[in-house]
Specification:
Elements (H helix, E strand, L loop, with lengths): L16 H16 L5 H14 L1 H4 L7 H8 L9 H17 L7 H34 L30 H11 L3 H16 L3 H18 L14 H16 L5 H32 L1
Helix pairs in contact: 1-5, 1-6, 2-5, 5-6, 7-8, 8-9, 8-10, 8-11, 10-11
């Protein structure tokens, strides 16, 4: 029996980081915070800015037309960062008020910041390519079509550490498959890297999460599970557990690496939940 996904090859057609950002925003609204109406989102944004003087300094108005255009993908421009941040905080506040389990504002903001930065970098690179093409056309030079790699807004550099050293052969094997266009391997690599970040220090965790987002983006459209990928939280635990169980059923020794990833993600979730419970008790005592 071959390893799951080992022979799955896809043509890398480049990443659309703006589409990825929009997809994630829609998931946040529709699934994670109960699909609130645009009218409610607009009202909550106004209430949040009025209740908190500090937030009022950066919180953006969220008129229904603006949010609808963004979520429906009508705009071809990357949204203003503070507009996106406002939508994220509003959705998180609605979920909390509705009693739905959701990540903290800090965790969501960190995740969406990575997505936004990738989309913004891609937008800038596209503008630079257009400028180069225009300049070449004006001087009568040949305009070369960009190679597939140029479609990405961010790629690991030769100096970047691609996978943790202690992964050994597992890391090198999956990295090689992912770099050769195996979408399944790219998604598995993303899950493992995101779990690795759960137990790392702040700077190292940021590096692994950036790589995780990059590789999962390479799997979008080819691996269904990639659409529901998250850099941390319960969803990450679910994805890691599914892979661990799949490899265990196939009798592959590499399942032990995925079980370790599950434990890393679970430990991070427990830590976050414990902190929330402590904060809730403190608020109850004050009240």
């Amino acid at each position: 029996m071959s390893e799951p996904g080992r022979l799955m090859k896809v043509v890398d057609q480049g990443e659309d980081h703006l589409a990825l950002l929009v997809t994630r925003l829609n998931r946040l609204r529709e699934i994670e915070c109960g699909n609130p109406s645009l009218k409610r989102i607009e009202k909550v944004a106004l209430a949040l800015s009025e209740d908190d003087p500090e937030r009022k300094r950066w919180c953006r108005p969220l008129p229904k037309s603006t949010v609808a255009d963004l979520l429906n993908g009508r705009s071809q421009k990357v949204p203003d960062f503070l507009l996106m941040r406002t939508i994220v905080e509003v959705c998180q506040a609605i979920a909390v008020k509705s009693g739905m389990p959701i990540e903290s504002v800090e965790e969501l903001t960190a995740e969406f910041t990575v997505l936004w930065q990738a989309a913004k970098a891609e937008e800038g690179e596209a503008a630079r390519r257009r400028n180069r093409s225009s300049a070449a056309a004006r001087t009568g030079g040949d305009v070369l079509e960009p190679v597939p790699g140029e479609q990405s807004s961010w790629r690991p550099s030769a100096m970047d550490q691609r996978v943790p050293l202690h992964w050994g052969r597992l890391g090198k094997f999956r990295l090689r498959l992912a770099e050769n266009g195996d979408a399944r391997a790219a998604h598995e690599l993303a899950v493992l890297l995101a779990c690795e970040a759960c137990g790392a220090g702040e700077k190292e965790a940021e590096h692994w999460r950036r790589l995780a987002a990059y590789w999962n983006n390479r799997a979008l459209g080819a691996v269904p599970e990639a659409a529901g990928f998250q850099l941390r939280g319960r969803r990450l635990v679910v994805l890691a557990r599914a892979l661990a169980e799949e490899y265990a059923r196939a009798g592959k020794p590499s399942s032990t690496y995925f079980w370790k990833a599950v434990r890393q993600a679970e430990a991070s979730v427990r830590k976050v939940e414990a902190r929330r419970e402590a904060e809730a008790r403190q608020e109850a005592e004050v009240g």
